[in-house]
Endoplasmic oxidoreductin-1
Amino acid sequence: CAIDPRATVSDTCASYSTIDDLNAAISPSLQSLTQTTDFFSYYRLNLYNRTCQFWSDASGMCGNIACAVETLDNEDDIPEIWRAEELGKVEGPKAGHPGKKLQQERGDERPLLGELGENVGESCVVEYDDECDERDYCVPDDQGSSGKGDYVSLLNNPERFTGYDGPSSRQVWQSIYRENCFSKAQPAESGHPGTSSTPNPLGQQAAIDLLSVMKEHGRQQALAKGGKVQPGDESLEFDDGCLEKRVFYRVISGMHASISTHLCWDYLNQSTGNWGPNLQCYEDRLYKHPERISNLYFNYAVVLRAVAKLKDHLKSYTFCSGDPLQDRVTKQKANDLARKAAASPRIFDESLMFQDSSVEGLKEDFRNRFRNVSRLMDCVGCDKCRLWGKLQTTGYGAALKVLFEFHESDQANSLPLRRTELVALVNTLGRISHSLTASRNFRVMLEAKNNGT
Ligand code: FAD
């Protein structure tokens, strides 16, 4: 099952070792941005107030202490950037980036790099994260809720082993993979996922039939490659001729692989009470399934490309923390990351997707299905898992929006992302980047184990 570092990661034009090298070069900027700035290390989401739309399963709630999330309940602990609207501070045009508008009025060709505040006439604006946009690949997390969400420090709630498993987590994963059952006859409707609980018997049956065919196909392929089919393996590990559907599956599987890598990397040894890497966990969940590792690398290529596309827009983005020095530092770090991402070789080419006239309507179907995946996050019965699941689906949704709904040359438009989407996008890249590093370390540990050293 070993990964050959020289092999190309399919659907990209880079090898595993090229992506590892890129990750090594970019991860210091990424870590600095996600771990040392308030803007990117705090997150606002609706963690508790949204019920699962698809089934009710109170027994699926995880009661482990490791599943709990430490929220910021005291307003003084919430960085100003996140509480501005609660304080009713300043209200301006939504994400209109007045600085940029002003520059245009003044006839400036380029925004003033690294400068904020009075120099460019920018003011802090309130951004309503629940405003919906038809280009969204995710359901805005605050949509339809009365409150303005929960505030969390991502650093104080690390993604790691929680002990959440059993029928509840399996049901969520199965429903997520079922969204992959594209069929011309059954396009996903907005708000009506093809999950087992959808009140649409025809759609459900079609999905189940397709699921069986795909599972059998996956099994045959695995056997043909001399691989082992795991008992009870419900995943849809198949090659589909259509790039778009394959990309959908790979994004989900890569996200699943990243979550698995983190829980194996930061695992609780229940007999000693110590946290640390669990090699057997990695072997079982990833190493024996090289296609999952490939999907993880694929996701790095996809999300990195989205961040690269934001390079010019981030130059004029307003980071309003209430502290001009912190804003300047955040802006420099964000621009540094985007510049490095844009300077790296282009390893994923989104322009190849949704081109063929025979796949008309597929993009909307793709978008609706991804929205359904984001809705399914409300069914995750472990608070910590739900937090990171929501953040990452929002991050992938933001990446897909940037890739498929936004052209770099379109400078007239402001950044197409809400603040939570931007934070989620960068942190999702941070998660994949950390997974690549952990996965590489695990492979070194395995080699040492197999060589008896
Ligand atoms: P699961 O990981 O539950 O997988 C179910 C089935 O999916 C497998 O049998 C296999 O057939 C298939 N599969 C597995 N991986 C892949 C892949 N990469 N690609 C394609 N198919 C695959 N647990 C934690 O400890 N910490 C967390 O932070 C955490 N976050 C979670 C977030 C979400 C959104 C969900 C739904 C669950 C989360 N969990 C987390 C639970 C965790 O993902 C597993 O579900 C749990 O550990 C049980 O694992 P399992 O061995 O039954 O297989």
In short: Strands lie at 42-45, 150-153, 267-269, 274-276. Residues 188 and 364 are 8 Å apart (CA to CA). Residues 159, 161-162, 164-165, 169-170, 172-173, 232-235, 253, 256-257, 259-260, 263, 292, 380, 384-385, 388-389 surround flavin-adenine dinucleotide (CB under 6 Å). The first strand starts at residue 42 and ends at 45.
